[in-house]
Amino acid sequence: MTKTKEPKIFYGWIIIIAGFLTTFAGMGVINSMSGVLLVPITEDLGFTRAEFTFHRSILFLLGACFMPLYGRLFEKFGVKKIMIITSIAIAFCIYAFSWATTLSHFYWLAVLNSIFITGISFLSVGYLIASWFEDRRGFVTGIAFAGFGIGTMIFIPISTWIYEQTDWQTVYQVIGVIVLIIVFPTTMFLVKDKPEDIGQKPYRNKEETKTIKSVEAKNISFKQALKSPVFWMLISAFFLLSIIQGGPNFNAIPFLTDIGHTEAFAALVMSGLMLAHTIGNLSLGTFFDKFGMKNGGLFLGICCIIFPLLALGAGNQIFVWLFAIFYGPASSGFVPVAVVVTYYFGGKNFALIFAVFNMAMQLGMSISGPAMAIVYDLSGSYNISWLMLTVFGVIITAFLFISFLVNKKPSKVR
Fold this sequence. Notes:
The chain is mainly alpha-helical. The chain has 16 helices and no strands. The protein has helices at residues 12-31, 33-45, 49-77, 79-96, 103-116, 122-132, 137-165, 168-190, 206-216, 222-226, 229-258, 263-311, 317-330, 334-345, 350-379, 383-408.
């Protein structure tokens, strides 16, 4: 009888590459259009900023509603099949935005987009990582999720250049094609649902296994999690964190041009923001792995407090770049979510609990962009928004720290 040869390398590292490419094209490239097209579309079609950004709210809000369903679909059909279908659908949806001429067109396309977007999101990539890695999840999640920041960073100047050479419709068309030619083959040829499918086991680091296992031994059920005060403090913290992440991401370019910076400088800063976001993804995951929940939470919270305060002085270019540096870790909310869910609630019910946290974050992101735009429309300034985000940063820091202290107490839940 012939023995099956064990693969020479652990295939989980290929999964991380696939996850990176998915967040790069399926999220980052798409996100690059947000700030770039806000002013051109509203001026061309006569919408207010708040009216136009509402289509993003629809996308995030309805997308959040579908997240628990996707958790079930992943478990029933596997991630790969779902990602293949949704990558094709999302590419078509993005391309179709180029045909929009009224607000209702943008709104209905956002509804269609929301049905499929979760299939190539942080949830699908996070689910794959949870299946392939038992240890070093912070580190590998940071690498996979970094694709979002790098994709946004690279394609902001590209989207800007395409718009300057052609029109905003062409930007949508090009991005739609890019999503299809990157995400579809990545999913088709690289993604494997579970290590057991190819005769491997999830990654374990012998030095870390005892620590991780003592945490994952909890394996708290979803019903038990709902009864835990830690669950509600954490979900509140990440809801506010998503507001901090989403609002500036969508409004940074208009904000900078409004206070006197050139469009070219604003686009450069936005790329810098995404570079800082990428470094934040990588460093934050490793920071949580090496220094634990308490220190990781405090570091994240401090960044959330500092960067909005720096925005108040953004007329000075030095403050602009400091703002970008501190925004990086603060905007990396989906990395700590993946780590925190495993740490506090175990790995067995990861998909459902992670989906609910993602729902809360999608809700925050759905309201943050339009909310900042509404504040601008009413006051003619973004300063009130920056002050509110500072307050949210203080609350986030408190909730993360208290959650750690409460979790350290002996618990009967096992």
